[in-house]
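We both want to read discrete structure tokens more fluently, so let's practise on a single case. Would you write everything just below, so we can both look at the same thing?
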Amino acid sequence: MNGLNVNDLVNLTNTGALKTHLSARAWLTACANADDLEHYRWQLWFQPLDQTPVMVVETNNQPGFTFNGDHQLVYTTVNTQMKHTRLHFYDVKNYETSKTVLLKDHQLKVLEKLAGGQFLLGGRTQRPDKEPNKPWHELKEVPYWSNEEGLVDQTRRHLWVFNSATEQLNDLLPQDFDCSNYWYQDGQLFLCGVSYKNSRPFKDGLYKYDFVNQELQELVRPNQYRVDTIALLKDQLFVLASNCKIYGMGENPNFYRYSGHTLHLVAKWDHNVGNIVVNDMTVVGGHSSTVSDGKLYFVSTVIDHTEVYSFDGQHINLTFKWPGAVNSLASENQRLVFTATTTDQPQQVYQYDGSDLGQVTKYNRFLQKRSVATMHEFEYYDSTNRQCHGWVLYPVNYQSGKKYPAVLEVHGGPRATYGTSFFHEMQVLANAGYFVLFTNLHGSEGQGDEYADLRGRYGQVDYADLMAFTDAVLKQYVDIDPTKVGITGGSYGGYMTNWVIGHTNRFKAAVSQRSIATWVSMMISDIGPEFVTDQLAASLDQENGMQTYWQHSPLSYVHNVQTPTLFLHSDHDFRCPIPEGYQMFQSMKLQGVPTKLVVFHGANHDLSRDGRPDQRMKRLTEMVAWFNKYLK
């Protein structure tokens, strides 16, 4: 039986964005459009309690949606060319659209139903000096671009209220205020954000919106905490947040009770909120927490999988463990509803009633006709003699005693983690005849802050871990040809790929994706001013700052590189901007080392996860071809 190939991307269904209302639920799916590979087919699904799901609409752009009572959904579609938004009021009982409203000059998504026939919408404000068809633009602020949204200078993320009776749209927030997150519970609206000019602070403030007086009430001032989620439990506000003082900007949050403009510690927690088990099936997102029955339910990443916990205002209790990655979480009628992956399945919708786990959807049935490579877990000792485990995928149709090439995968982050989750890219490599090797190094999430703290140690303990893992795999899996091992990774994984080829020649081919060449040029990243100084534990205004940045930069070791390397980068990647790829490629080219750079136009840092289908397929095709050329 054949395994998965590049073209199977058009068969894979992504699922998420779950929302519930009383006895009904709705969610989104996205699948590559085989007839138009520039877009996905987005589908909005509605399911009455325990009945067959019904598709509400199919569109080329991701719709926003919310419930409007028991028998109506409201969803938004955006015309990106005209820059207009249309609200659709859909009667789910009669399966027909009852009304549409056009909102000109706005690109918004409906988020929540408010009281009195009103709806909460979110989106970007327009640049005040915007002049169409001018061959220039001015930058006045930092950040000036965003990986997800492009040019954002002099714009802000705002919230609007739409009144369905008057069809009026009103902006809730002050002009300079930027809203990074919001929560709507029990008729109350809370949000994180900050007002700024010139430069945006990293840590937002926490606010409550007063609908009566139409103003923001500051609860926690900016520059104190990074807030991950909030919950109203028995009329008391609880906040899951981190002050980032011990382990830096990625430090895991603790539980606090809010009163008197102060957060009071209730319970310590050494895990994150949300799924950070990496895979390439994340076209559709979703919420990682929900409030039900007086408890906050939330997702955490633990070692190599996700677990769902509850917090009742005093205690944290495990609800259930999931052998994979929970991507979207909601609650209904004493049940939790969620989307999740397993080792051999992309996202499906599941439900949990306190005792039984049940699968709701049956997407991706074509996988029954494919050989999905199994994850083989094995234990080894890392560079600090700590017992760890990693995984190996065997080549499809593997024959014992035959020698095979292998590819070592390195995840991004570094505060991410590999785990028991379906990964199309790895399946493609296994089907192409490769062993696929992966593990979690120092710096990975899921094993506590101390293990994840890589600040000032980039290219040190993580590199030693990677070599220890590779040695252990080659010793245990004798059918891997040690002379035909390649390496690949993206983001931090791209940094490590660049670092590795400058420190060893043991890998005979490399594919470096959305990588980092130097920490100095990384300062122009959309998160650069905070991320770079935090992760290197140094700043350029320090006496030895430049020396520290250069010491940890792969480009400073490029003179050692002999490994044929393919670079994959996107020209709208503002997380690891395109100069990072150009610097490595040009340096190697001038040295005569076999290299190639493929630039994906209009794509951003998330190309491998939710980029255009044709570009994602081109990326995988280039990767397999490069490894085939140098490893076979």
The first strand starts at residue 13 and ends at 21. The first helix runs from residue 424 to 431.
